[in-house]
């Protein structure tokens, strides 16, 4: 077991399926669509299961009394029954031919190229023609304007080395949200330094995976005839050639070999070592004293809903990963639902709204600039008693806050 982060890759042999924990009603819901990428807790649970199997533990009939007989080292890694141990996760992230792809931060917008006319059965690549960046250029709220003291964000482009506000339709079409797009390491590096990534730094989800629909019918046990109201359809996910899932781990004796069962149906994925880190390094040069941006590479949960963990409508100054900061702005996408099953207590976990990956928050701080990079690559999540950060929720990317007068 090591305290250093180690990188791994998961290569699926077939389709994958992941649910968000939302209940499905028999006779009402017949189509279950997979979400992708999976939530960190799904991967965390799969790794814990793999570690039990590595040690020859029989999963059937696993209970608190049986757990107490496990080896001390394994219990330290996984925690006591219903708890958490030294095992920590960063990820998952997407890999394409070994290159890390992270969700595009929400303070970016894209102007899509017009698709060329192609055959009906030919997939169309959703190319980016131009990129804008939303800057937190507004001042504090004034009575009668908006209901919070956070700054508003306006679209800007870089022109002759300076920021120019982008106005539609004078300057072109309305920028489209980057939800569903990922950035290459070069694009993330450019964003972190306060710049605008090049159009070719964006990769759309359509290029990384595709839905694969499969329909089934439940049969009666005695006659093997179709059972009424039991037609169901699953929307599986098939990864494109060269695409896999990456993650980092520490506090675990997991070996990068063999197989791991992941998601619904326990689909097999190959577990392989990964030489490069799963998170691009941060350049400190562009960070300025007193301000920074934080983008989430994995979803996170907060007791206050859409505010980052530790912050709320009534508390805009809080401690963020050991750094005291004031929230001054944010760009939040539609919230996702995170749930799951609590094996130790044999009950469903609370179904909560999560802040999706890609959301961006702007902060000001009196801390020294040298302290800000310590947040990069850390996990930030609320509900501390549930150890969500240890499970991989809230993986952070630190960036410089661009200013319109620069």
Tell me what the structure shows.
By secondary structure, the protein is mostly beta strands. It folds into three domains: 6-96 and 208-273, no CATH class; 106-112 and 125-205, no CATH class; 291-399, Immunoglobulin-like (Sandwich), CATH 2.60.40.4350. It is built from four helices and 25 strands. The strands form six sheets. Strands 11-10-4-3-14-1-16-15 form an eight-stranded antiparallel β-sheet. The protein has a five-stranded antiparallel β-sheet with strand order 8-7-6-5-9, with no helix packed on it. A five-stranded antiparallel β-sheet has the order 18-19-24-17-25, with no helix packed on it. The radius of gyration is 23 Å and the shape is globular. The model has no long low-confidence stretch (mean pLDDT 86).
Q: Tags for this entry?
A:
eight-stranded antiparallel β-sheet; 406 residues; Immunoglobulin-like; 3 domains; five-stranded antiparallel β-sheet; mainly beta; globular
Give a nutshell description of this structure:
Helices cover 8% and strands 34% of the residues. It has helices at 40-54, 64-67, 72-78, 185-192; strands spanning 6-12, 31-33, 88-96, 99-103, 108-112, 128-135, 154-159, 162-165, 176-177, 181-183, 202-204, 209-219, 226-239, 243-250, 259-262, 267-273, 291-296, 317-320, 323-331, 336-338, 341-342, 347-348, 352-354, 360-364, 396-399.
